[in-house]
């Protein structure tokens, strides 16, 4: 019963999100609603669902409730790539994509695949993967910090705005471009649900149950890196979605991965769509980056959930 109620609430939230925002004149109503707000809501649903699912999978895989895509260096790699593109100053990559988007995708995927390659080692344990992710993140962060010394004030401002996390007005073409990456990530990770259910008791238990731990670990990290790299490339690092949504679903529906993983997709889509809609109305005449809204909501909510779990 809880599952159906939660599904109905999330679908209603996604349907209402495009209607939230400043009023517009009758002449421009159709264009603003159908060409700006609807595709942006669809983008928010894709990004929110993908990030939330990857967060839930990583938390299961690493047996750590604070695990996130940043654990394997995705966010740090994307930031490094975006900063390189901003300093280069070119607008379009060879394929016609915005250069910042293309460079952030390459940086995020490149750093994450290094960690995934380490995870594929025969004698590698989860602690080794986490340490590799931290090392890659620190290396990418150090390079990004060094690049900032060669940037001027305008480039630094552009990098700061990108790092806050935003949902760009990319229209339906941007939605169609992101959809294959999100679909591959979501379908692939949901296919690992049964294996991840066994991971609850640890890697040793999973191996005793016949689960190919090394293969599952590598595929999960690789698919998660692919989806998050695409999302971060378009929208920048949107904080706390991948952390807070799995916790909310876990407290509402339970810890079983059969409901936690698909529930995270649905709730994450609705959560980010509503956060983006709220960003349009919080400040009259101005629009906040959606990453600021998710951080403002997510930080105290996460602290509250942790406090309740310890009480």
From TrEMBL:
Q: Which SUPFAM superfamilies match?
A: ABC transporter involved in vitamin B12 uptake, BtuC
Q: Which UniProt keywords apply?
A: Cell membrane, Membrane, Transmembrane, Transmembrane helix, Transport
Q: Does the keyword Transmembrane helix apply?
A: yes
GO molecular-function term, one example from the UniProt record: transmembrane transporter activity
- Cite a GO CC annotation: plasma membrane
One short Pfam name that applies is: FecCD
Indicate the secretion signal residues: none
Q: Where does the chain cross the membrane? A: 41-61, 73-93, 99-120, 129-150, 170-192, 259-282, 288-307
Q: Which InterPro entries match?
A: ABC_BtuC-like, ABC_transptr_permease_BtuC
Q: Please verify whether the record's keywords include Cell membrane.
A: yes
Predominant cellular place of this UniProt entry's protein: membrane
Query: Its topology with respect to the membrane?
Result: Multi-pass membrane protein
Intracellular or extracellular location(s): Cell membrane
Instruction: Report the domain of life of the source organism.
Output: Bacteria
**PANTHER family linked to this entry:** ABC TRANSPORTER PERMEASE PROTEIN MJ0876-RELATED, FERRIC ENTEROBACTIN TRANSPORT SYSTEM PERMEASE PROTEIN
- Family under the similarity heading: Belongs to the binding-protein-dependent transport system permease family. FecCD subfamily.
Q: What is this protein called?
A: Iron ABC transporter permease
| Source species of the chain | Corallococcus exercitus
